[in-house]
Amino acid sequence: GYRRFFWVWGGGGGDAEKNLKKAHHRPPPSFFEVRKSELRSGKRVDCRDQYGKWLAAEIKERDSDDRDEWVIVHFLGWESQWNEKVSLCHGLWRFARYKSYTSEEELSASRPPMISSLKKGSQVIVHDTQTLPRSWVKGSVLEVEGNQVKVDYEHPPGARYEYWFHALSGEINTLQENTQNSSRSDPSAASRRYRLCGVVGHRGSLRGGHYTAYVRASASSSTQPKGDALKGVKSDENSDSWYSISDSRVKKIMFEDVMACQAYLVLYELCQ
């Protein structure tokens, strides 16, 4: 339940805008995050290996020097030759609370609907963790194992990766825009179709962040943004357009940018 509760930095530009820019280069926030101070010898955690797969692990050693601080991670059930040295300055995002991503019993009950639709060759959007600046890129599914998906993607051009992403992490989304509502209690519901018309996205963590509105606009739609904020923005009357609205800043964007956001609230309208 706590995934939906956030508080927002001040509405003006300032710190909120600075943190929004910083957040753009980070992976989506982990809802099972651990603090650096918790990662001590003997502590059990979930940890991503060098290929991105979430595995149950134990901290074997912690050390530091003038430039960095790191831990030696042992993956439970694996030989010590597979132990990894993980930087706490640059790799803290690789850790989560123990059994958050690796408990099959708990995760089977919260299996995302997206997973059942994925198969080898499915097209997805993933948050690239391999290169800087980190950004969302298109990829192709190679393998699905439980709630974890192995994806092949290229970023930047010429650099190809095969990396695992967890469906609950917010780092992977499908490229599906339209949705269809169905209800067992209403026979006519199966023929109803709904169209995505707006998304409220959040950047940051559970302790703070910034909200951005994404609005679908068309000449025939009541969701067409209005007001002084849209002065100078041209709308294509022959096709639907998407706009991002962050404080007083409005710009036209691609639908892929909407799918790549961390959705806090999703709005649909009934198609006629």
Written overview of the protein:
The structure is a single chain. The chain has 272 residues and is mainly β. Helix content is 10%, strand content 39%. The chain contains four helices and 16 strands. The chain has helices at residues 14-24, 104-109, 113-117, 255-259, and strands at residues 44-48, 54-64, 69-75, 84-87, 95-97, 123-127, 136-145, 148-154, 160-166, 172-174, 179-180, 193-205, 208-217, 241-246, 249-253, 263-270. The strands form three sheets. Strands 11, 12, 13, 14, 15 and 16 form a six-stranded antiparallel β-sheet that branches. Strands 4-3-2-1-5 form a five-stranded antiparallel β-sheet, with no helix packed on it. A five-stranded antiparallel β-sheet has the order 9-8-7-6-10. It is globular. The relative contact order is 0.15. Mean pLDDT is 75; it is low at 1-26, 177-185 and 227-238.
Helix content: under 10%
Number of helices: 4
Report the sheet with the most strands, covering strand number, pairing sense and barrel closure. 6 strands, antiparallel
Rg calculated over all Cα atoms:
21 Å
The number of strands is: 16
User: What number is the mean pLDDT?
Assistant: 75
Distance between the termini: 34 Å
Q: Bin the strand percentage.
A: 35-45%
Structural class: mainly beta
Shape: globular
Q: Name the helix and strand elements from N-terminus to C-terminus, one letter apiece.
A: HEEEEEHHEEEEEEEEEEHE
Parts with pLDDT < 50 across at least 5 consecutive residues: 1-26, 177-185, 227-238
